[in-house]
Sequence to fold (991 residues):
Amino acid sequence: MPKEKRRRPPMTWTRLKNQVLNVITNPFNMIVFISLVVLFCLIIIPLFTMICNTFQVAKAELRNIPDAQIGDFTLFYWKYLLASPLTAAILWEPMLHSVMIGFFVTIISIPLGSVLAWLMVRSDIPCKKLLSMLIIIPYMIPSWCKALSWLAVFRNSTSGSLGLLTGLGLAVPDWLAYGPVAIICVMVMHYYAFAYIMVSGSLRSINSELEEMGEIQGANKLQILKSITLPLVLPSVLSAAIMTISKSIGSYGVAANLGNRISYYVLATRMKEFINDSPKGVGYAMSIIMIIMACGIIFANQKLVGVRKSYATIGGKGTRSNLMHIGNAKYPLLAFIVIFLFAAMVMPTFVLVMESFQIRTGGGYGLDNLTLYAWIGTLDNAPLESFAYNGIFRNSEFLRALGNTVKLSLIASIITAFCGQFLGYISTRGRGKWYGKAVEQMVFIPYLMPGVAFSAIYFAMFSQPRLGGIIPSLYGTFALILLVSVVKHFPFASRSGSANMMQISVELEEAADIAGAGFWRRIGSIVIPLAKNGFISGFMLVFISIAKELDLIAILMTPSNYTLSFLAFEYSKSLMPQCADAIAIVILLFILICYRIANLFGADVGKSWG
Amino acid sequence: MSRIVLEHIDKFYGDNHVLKDINLVIEDGDFMTLLGPSGCGKTTTLRVVSGLEKPQNGTMTMDERTIINCDEAFYAAPSKRGLNLVFQSYALWPHMTAYENVAFGLKIKHLPKAEIEEKVMSALKVMRIEEYRDRYPNELSGGQQQRVAIARAIATSPKLLLLDEPLSNLDARLRIDMRAELKRLHKETGTTIIYVTHDQVEALTMSTKIALFKQGEISQVDTPLGIYTNPIDLEAADFIGNPRINFIDGMGIFDGKTLRVKSDVGSYEFPLCDMKTSEEYPTNEEFPVVLGVRPEMIELETVRGDHPNTLEAVVYASQPAGSETLISLTAGKAEFLAIQIGLVEYDMNQTVYTVLHPERMNVYNKKTTRLIKYAYAAHKA
Fold:
């Protein structure tokens, strides 16, 4: 069939008027327009501003750069970072550390998580239900809490107060207590659960008929595992690996807690030093490097996995899984899992909890060494002179931080979840149209950036008045922290919004349209009631994620805005870790309770972005 | 009153030309069925009429009122067109009861509560589902959901009712029940209905008119009987009717007054008055034709009758199916199917005598695939 030319009607005034009216009178178009503008202002402009800042002379560097004016073009920061005598110390060494940590975390946690996933989903190992619940608990615990637990066990005299092992008389060397080994161990404890969640999800989606077919063809268990199961889950394993590398390279909290004490720096911690102290431009430049690394890794993921990923979701009615009998191997394996969970979760948590009741850390659990001081004590009756603060419930700093955390999490997650639903609505209803794609892609950008780097962008954008003073300097305000938390969680919220909106058939809305319901009426009577549950579960997951956030807000913190996470981080640096422990326990309980509530609304931990 | 006129409607999805110059007039009170295989543009046409899709070219009027004028980029909002739509998926709002589903459109119009109650209950009563008023859609069976969807569409007393394959999700028995229900509904309310389906039985049994779609174009608009007896081309003939029509190849020659056809099923003469003169075919020159003979139009006897067109044929196989018997026959190289009412026994390879009444035959020009000679449903008067 020959391709016909499309007739274009001549442009007349009525036509133009009607065309304009068609666009303007449709509220959906307005929402799309506003979303595009807002996303552009909140994501593209700040990113661009930060890039500009690395090329412009700032006030602090006036004396370092002769004859320069503020705002002049300069390569000073990039030269400082990439080609100065300091380059090795400030860039290559931290980068090497980051990459090494990312590498080791990945090669340990991915196999660990995958094997656990296989055992839990496909084998007939006993006590599965309980174990599979326990295995994902570490993923709910913020990683900096795990770092505190690690310290509670391994701390040595280098940081003043002693840990459990040192208290028992075992000399813990610095290389074990702090630095790369500690960081890698703590991160593995976090990311194995991530790998577990991804791989077990994909294992569950494999139709067991595929494996049964292999059996009928005469393959033995090992052959089935090797040539059917493994290739099918490989995409999700690969994907988990790449996400783990990317996340562990960009993470700040653990590395700061366990590295800074012995001056072991990674990119994220080094960058924060620069942004908070000396040439900020260098810090911005470093965050650009981090963003490029993260983007590169994630795009590699899409290149590697992209097309093949699709077959991991081949489902079918094979929900009835025929379990693999692993025979006598199951008891040693069970013992291994139990010991692993004990060492990775139960023991450290126990030590953390107990430490919060101790007078002298590492001083044993005798009654004479136990106190409720860290919880409710006041300085007048402090058992030790070195105690610097009241117990947390008598401590105004704690109460303020608690208030800040609740306020921040609540407001930010409501805004985020709400925007997420709208963005999801736009990207599902605009599927295949230019604005749907534009929204989807812009929303995705914050996902590419490590939390610290992302907050660096906002720091660069809002640490000075903008638009000739219309937007005042937001540094040190709650508003800025709120803004960062909201925008950083856009990708997750809009993805859960999209998933939610996909379930609401367009026809339901069209039926209302024909019945005469306008756009807002449709949203109010049809979309919102149907999206409610998805909205609540999305809201809870964002809420939890913001409540435990440390990386994202570390750069922007000023004392009046401390959140619980940051306060615990600050206290853990002092001589009195008991209070930090107590705060960590408060957050832990808080988060577990929230997850429980979220679960009631059908939220899935596996869908959160921990 | 509602007379709908579509003129020169074009619809593109990107470069994909899905509706090509659609022209259609739907008279007030018509039950117009848009019939065709999937992907032929019938649902798109329905959505254009409803206002859910905007065409790029053309106009549409309802009772002389302009609804669509693409040249002026004018499109009346769906709710301003006085119509309602039943979706293939029913699109019942899962968070509302049957009653609330039906009442929604009336509430939007801010009718007084008593009036809403009255209208909803009468719509539910027409569809015979009053007792399910407080159930949610997932507590209703497929057939009941269907009834709620129709009740929702008729509660607002639309001037035009659009139905998009409403029966395709029902099982065979329910479908027959609902067909009768819809036909009564049309008679009782007198509403103009546009009905989309790919099921020719639905189209033939319910409509007052059928528009036959083919790759984004309307190939034929006629009454069900008209479409059935005189499908416009070979494709349409093949699509309409079950079991399908017999096609028998032959050679024809037209001398200006009579079309003479020779084939394996005999020689026939067709007078000029039965010919479709607007079609293209050569004169005084032999050209290939296809005879179209409906299986139920074939007379079958075991003894030779005295009809001049009696043809001897051999039974290839016979398939008794209770209410009817299908008999496959061969004559020369031609194979064709005949239907007889009730259980009739024939032996394999038995010789039978058939009459293929020439006045009941369609003749198609093989080259253009178009109809060139009309058939009559019964004996010519």
Notes: Residues 239-373 of chain B form a domain with the OB fold (Dihydrolipoamide Acetyltransferase, E2P) fold (CATH 2.40.50.140).
